[in-house]
Amino acid sequence: MSLHVDSIRKHFKFRQVLNDIFISCKQGEVIGLLGRNGSGKSTLLKIIFGSLAAENRFVAIDDIRTNGLFQNKGLIGYLPQESFLPGHIKIKSIVNLYCGPHQAAILFEHDMVKPFLAKKSRELSGGERRMIEVLIMIYSTARYLLFDEPFNGISPMHIEKIKTLIQQNTVKKGFIITDHDYTNVIAISSRVILLHEGAIKKIGGLNDLVDLGYLPDKYAIELEKNTFT
Ligand SMILES: Nc1ncnc2c1ncn2[C@@H]1O[C@H](COP(=O)(O)OP(=O)(O)OP(=O)(O)O)[C@@H](O)[C@H]1O
């Protein structure tokens, strides 16, 4: 069971943003995707999901090639960087829209969702909205989830709960997660990769992130005390 992404190429005007990108994600894995601002992380996730066209794109789920949004339906879920909840609809209805009855019933009782069920999304704070979106995606039917900045605006206590939920849900799902909160991404990732100058680099330790210019030098010694390999 795997999501297989290969040969992705994309340019905007004269800039080649993605150059023959390869990523695989098995059910049970969390892939941490890091990269500097503008390195192409969101572009890559949109192309994998099928909402953005590319010059070249190969995506296969469990060895079956998918050609875009409609073939991905129910298989790949995408949490965009910007909020996607319709502002005028109650959270309870949105949960019903995205989740099956069994998963919706779990969310209705979840302490991070229950207090907001009767509210409309526009009545929530930015962090509350993000929290709901992330939970809806985790409990959606999709088997592979692409998360673009899931921790943005969320307080540390809730980030911990979300990390636990992601890890619990890897039993049946695979995740590709990008967020500038790299310590929390690294903490839950089975593998970490860096999008650098249009290519994917495998990251074996925190020093690689310094060497490739993602983390400043001053972090090297302190961060090497932690390890994610
Ligand atoms: N529609 C577009 N037209 C032209 N250039 C674009 C377009 N979308 C993205 N780009 C450019 O492609 C590059 C990659 O953008 P992308 O949003 O994928 O980066 P990112 O790694 O997600 O960045 P960030 O971490 O800041 O969110 C950027 O230089 C951006 O300016």
From TrEMBL:
Keywords linked to the UniProt accession: ATP-binding, Nucleotide-binding, Transport
Domain (ABC transporter) ranges: 3-222
Domain of life according to the entry: Bacteria
Short name of any one Pfam family annotated for the protein: ABC_tran
Annotated PROSITE patterns: ABC_TRANSPORTER_1, ABC_TRANSPORTER_2
SMART domains, sorted: AAA
An example molecular function term from Gene Ontology annotations: ATP hydrolysis activity
Annotated protein name in UniProt: ABC transporter ATP-binding protein
Organism: Pedobacter cryoconitis
